[in-house]
Amino acid sequence: MADVQKVTLGVVGWDGVAAGHFAPVVMPDSPNGLEGLQNDVETGKASVLAVMADGERIGSVLVRILSGGDGLHFVIECANADLPGFDLVETCMPALEGWAKQLGCVAVDVPTHRAGLVFKMKRRNYQVVQTVLRKAIS
Questions:
Q1: How far apart are CA 99 and CA 94, in angstroms?
Q2: Which residues on adjacent β-strands are paired with residue 7?
Q3: pLDDT at position 115
Q4: Helix 88-102 / helix 115-123 crossing angle, nearest 10 deg
Q5: What separation in angstroms does the CA of 42 have from each of 6, 37, 46, 120, 131?
Q6: How far is the C-alpha of 4 from the C-alpha of 11, rounded, in Å?
Q7: Once rounded to an integer, what is the mean pLDDT over residues 94-113?
Q8: Do residues 60 and 48 lie in contact, with contact meaning Cβ atoms separated by under 8 Å?
Q9: Phi-psi category of 25—alpha, beta or left, where left has phi over 0 and alpha has psi -120 to 50?
Q10: In angstroms, rounded to a whole number, what is the distance separating the alpha carbons of residues 76 and 106?
Q11: In the chain, which ranges are continuous DSSP H helix?
C-alpha cells in the first residue's frame, strides 16, 4: 500500500472530483451513466463518500441502500482512487462493512464487471450472487 498514515471516509456532495473518480469505472453500458449517478446523489438516492489519505482526497465511493427480500443492502456502486499503490478494498472495506452494519443493513453488495475485483472480494468472503449480461438491440 502507498505510504499513508491515516485514511478516513466522509459523506460529501457530488463534485468534479467524484465525477473524475467515477468516470473510468462506471459499469459499461450502465443505463444510468455518470449523469444518472450524479442525479441519484443530488436527489438523495445515493451518497458519495470521500476517501481521505492524510487529509488529502484521493478517492471516492458511491453507495446507496436498497431494500432486498431479506432486508436492507448497502450497495457500493462505484469506487476509485488515484493514489498509486493504494488498495481501496483492503483499506476501506472493513469501515464500509461496519458502516453498513450500523445502518441496519444485512448485506453489502458490490456489482462489478472487473474480474480482478471479484477475485479480491472473494478473498474477503464475498460470493458471486448474480451475473448480468446485456446486448444492445437498438
A1: 9
A2: 53
A3: 80
A4: 60
A5: 29, 9, 8, 31, 29
A6: 20
A7: 91
A8: yes
A9: alpha
A10: 14
A11: 16-22, 33-42, 88-102, 115-123
DSSP 11: E
User: Shortest CA distance to 78 belongs to which of 47, 122, 42?
Assistant: 47
Cell 449480461: give the residue. Answer: 133
Does pTM surpass 0.90?
no
What confidence tens digit (pLDDT) does each residue in 53-86 have?
A: 899 999 999 999 999 889 999 999 999 999 888 8
Report residue 60: phi and psi, to 5°.
-145, 150
Cβ-based neighbour number of residue 35 at 10 Å: 10
pLDDT digits (tens, 9 = 90+) for 2-14: 676 888 999 999 9
User: For residue 74, which amino acid is it?
Assistant: F
Instruction: Write down the residue that cell numbers 451475473 correspond to.
Output: 131
Strands 71-81 and 105-109 come out as: parallel
Please give the pLDDT value at position 113.
76
